[in-house]
Write a structure and sequence with these properties.
alpha/beta; D-Maltodextrin-Binding Protein, domain 2; 2 domains; 6-stranded mixed β-sheet; 5-stranded mixed β-sheet; 11 strands; disordered N terminus
Length: about 350
């Protein structure tokens, strides 16, 4: 937008108007040689700046331990997955990889800590979709914006969810459940692990689209919700296969449908919603557990991390351990993970918006 910079008088005297001892101006050939020399000097400087910018990735990175931050307390499925990945990545990176639990405020505390950490690629976040998607709708003010303050490294695995009911509910499929709820308005309660979460989204969608009256009961986590479901305090939920599959396999709960576009590997006998004729996006959406880094971590570091995650997840033993958690391994590269997030985010935000849930 600005015009060409004018050389200072001293620069002009030393360069563009350089004269010989007898006062004659330099020839055109001399000027060309001078400009060629300056161009070569400038070209030689550019690789130096590039090398300096990429030093963390190419010159001894990582030089010390890495941290994977989890936004929830120890013992949950995300925490367990983080520890599996830390164990797998440490020998590949040649440094210890430590899991740090920063729980609280719906994942905000841990997510914000990583978003504001040094962009050296040594502090990472393993996150479920809520803190980087639903929270954008649930909270009017967030201390971070996942779209600009964080960047994707890899989608590590997809947790699967299943619609399960207490055995007292006389329904064998999803259509049967809808009919039972319609016949007894206000009789059935859907448990969730918080406002705006997947079971809450499905409960609101069911009520609005099928003319039902279902109660929503929000818990401070999935474990207490599952215990109340087994006890019959609530009659149904959509929960992780990690938590619910053992109860289903023991006959203490009945599975009616799995969310997503394919059947869950841990519950292969349970059909999807779509297989039962319910293909709405609320039933198909599944979000991955993703490894993320602060937005300003250099591309080369992020690419290295993505390749290491992908390579680690080719190990059959690790894949089997992840599958035992009820999740399905992915291990894509940063660009693929970023594309997935861009597709997932608007759908997730729209479904959360439909619940009308707000937390501040």
């Amino acid at each position: 937008m600005n015009g060409p910079t004018r050389p200072s008088p001293s620069a002009g005297a030393a360069g563009m108007r350089n004269r010989s001892a007898d006062g004659a101006q330099t020839t055109d050939a001399g000027r060309r040689r001078l400009l060629a020399g300056l161009s070569a000097l400038a070209a030689g400087a550019l690789p130096l700046r590039t090398t300096q910018a990429s030093t963390p990735a190419t010159d001894g990175w990582p030089s010390r331990a890495l941290r994977i931050v989890v936004q929830y307390a120890p013992g949950g499925s995300t925490d367990t997955l983080a520890r599996l990945m830390a164990e797998a990545l440490s020998p590949r990176l040649g440094q210890p990889v430590i899991v740090e639990n920063r729980a609280g405020a719906g994942g905000i505390i841990g997510t914000d800590a990583v978003a504001k950490s040094a962009p050296d690629g040594l502090t990472l976040l393993l996150t479920v979709p809520g803190p980087i998607a639903a929270n954008l709708v649930l909270y009017k003010r967030l201390p971070y914006d996942p779209r600009t303050d964080l960047r994707m490294v890899s989608d590590v695995a997809t947790p699967r969810t299943v619609l399960a009911v207490h055995p007292s509910v006389q329904a064998r499929d999803f259509a049967g459940l809808i009919e039972r709820i319609r016949a007894q308005p206000g009789r059935f309660a859907m448990g969730s692990w918080g406002a705006g979460t997947q079971p809450h989204q499905i409960q609101v969608f069911m009520d609005r689209h099928y003319g039902l009256h279902t109660l929503h009961v929000a818990y401070k986590g999935e474990a207490p919700m599952a215990m109340d479901l087994v006890a019959g305090t609530v009659q149904m939920t959509v929960g992780s296969t990690t938590t619910l599959a053992p109860y289903i396999q023991a006959g203490r709960l009945r599975a009616l449908a799995t969310a997503g576009t394919t059947r869950a590997q841990v519950l292969p006998e349970v059909p999807t919603f779509a297989e039962q004729g319910f293909a709405d996006e609320v039933y198909a959406l599944t979000g991955p557990i993703s490894l993320m880094a602060p937005a300003r971590v250099p591309d080369a570091v992020v690419e290295r991390l993505g390749r290491e995650v992908q390579a680690a997840l080719q190990n059959p033993a690790l894949r089997a351990r992840i599958a035992a958690l009820g999740a399905e391994p992915i291990g894509n590269l940063p660009a693929q993970a970023a594309d997935n997030y861009r597709r997932f985010l608007p759908v997730s935000m729209r479904l959360v918006e439909a619940t009308g849930a707000r937390l501040d």
